[in-house]
């Protein structure tokens, strides 16, 4: 399974499939369309995935500067820095335009996938997802070390997920060890917000919870797992690759000079 390198129509179709699944699995509070640019904004959470312009057609290159201006005004109204999320669907024309404007490039991430057909899950824990969103969010904030002020926004996003979302937490008594969200969407199982509590890392908790979630998703008809991970997160990349995940394509973010 080779990484995406060129951009033929067949490759772009694969990318579009995962991009669409990502939008459904992690929905922004407000979505606007400017041609095939999807402008996603979320007042309650600062995450870049939820606050970015996502171009979805390399051929949509008309009036770029004018459309950037319109997007900038929307971002300004939300108090967010103008951010483009650049996948293979963004195309070279837009990339060169941003290069000429001196836009910064940062936070490259990988989209990875794993066929579930041959994955050995017999020994994985049979775990029922949490029904209590508040309890899960509390555990997730602790494992990820995130600020409690993000609770309302995270609750809003999780509550808006349209496909079936499994909220998984591995706990020792009342102490959360690892958490993740598994979104079952047709034949796809997307893993989001995967985190292990700092003092409990390198003990296999994340691996065990991922396998439990994938077992749950496969029983519901999922045939392929997928996830997004920052290229600089070497421990997570090592874990995912050891499970058999392979890179499909990459994306990164861009902001104008001084943003």
Automatic annotation (TrEMBL):
<dbReference type="InterPro" id="IPR016181">
    <property type="entry name" value="Acyl_CoA_acyltransferase"/>
</dbReference>
<keyword id="KW-0808">Transferase</keyword>
<dbReference type="GO" id="GO:0016747">
    <property type="term" value="F:acyltransferase activity, transferring groups other than amino-acyl groups"/>
</dbReference>
<dbReference type="InterPro" id="IPR000182">
    <property type="entry name" value="GNAT_dom"/>
</dbReference>
<keyword id="KW-0012">Acyltransferase</keyword>
<feature type="domain" description="N-acetyltransferase">
    <location>
        <begin position="123"/>
        <end position="259"/>
    </location>
</feature>
<dbReference type="InterPro" id="IPR050680">
    <property type="entry name" value="YpeA/RimI_acetyltransf"/>
</dbReference>
<protein>
    <recommendedName>
        <fullName>N-acetyltransferase domain-containing protein</fullName>
    </recommendedName>
</protein>
<dbReference type="Pfam" id="PF00583">
    <property type="entry name" value="Acetyltransf_1"/>
</dbReference>
């Amino acid at each position: 399974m080779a990484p995406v390198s060129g951009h033929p129509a067949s490759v772009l179709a694969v990318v579009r499939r995962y991009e669409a699944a990502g939008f459904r699995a992690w929905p922004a509070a407000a979505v606007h369309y400017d041609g095939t640019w999807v402008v996603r904004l979320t007042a309650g959470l600062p995450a870049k995935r939820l606050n970015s312009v996502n171009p979805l057609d390399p051929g949509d290159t008309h009036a770029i500067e004018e459309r950037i201006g319109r997007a900038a005004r929307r971002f300004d109204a939300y108090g967010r820095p103008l951010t483009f999320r650049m996948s293979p669907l963004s195309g070279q024309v837009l990339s060169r335009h941003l290069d000429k404007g001196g836009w910064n490039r940062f936070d490259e991430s990988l989209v990875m996938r794993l066929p579930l057909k041959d994955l050995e899950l017999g020994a994985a824990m049979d775990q029922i997802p949490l029904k209590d969103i508040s309890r899960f969010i509390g555990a997730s904030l602790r494992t990820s070390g995130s600020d409690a002020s993000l609770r309302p926004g995270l609750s809003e996003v999780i509550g808006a997920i349209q496909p079936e979302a499994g909220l998984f937490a591995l706990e020792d008594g009342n102490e959360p060890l690892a958490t993740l969200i598994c979104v079952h969407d047709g034949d796809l199982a997307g893993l989001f917000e995967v985190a292990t509590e700092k003092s409990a890392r390198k003990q296999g908790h994340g691996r065990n919870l991922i396998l439990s979630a994938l077992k749950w998703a496969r029983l519901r008809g999922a045939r392929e797992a997928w996830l997004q991970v920052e290229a600089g997160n070497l421990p997570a990349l090592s874990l995912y690759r050891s499970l058999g995940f392979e890179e499909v394509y990459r994306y990164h973010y861009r902001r104008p000079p001084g943003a």
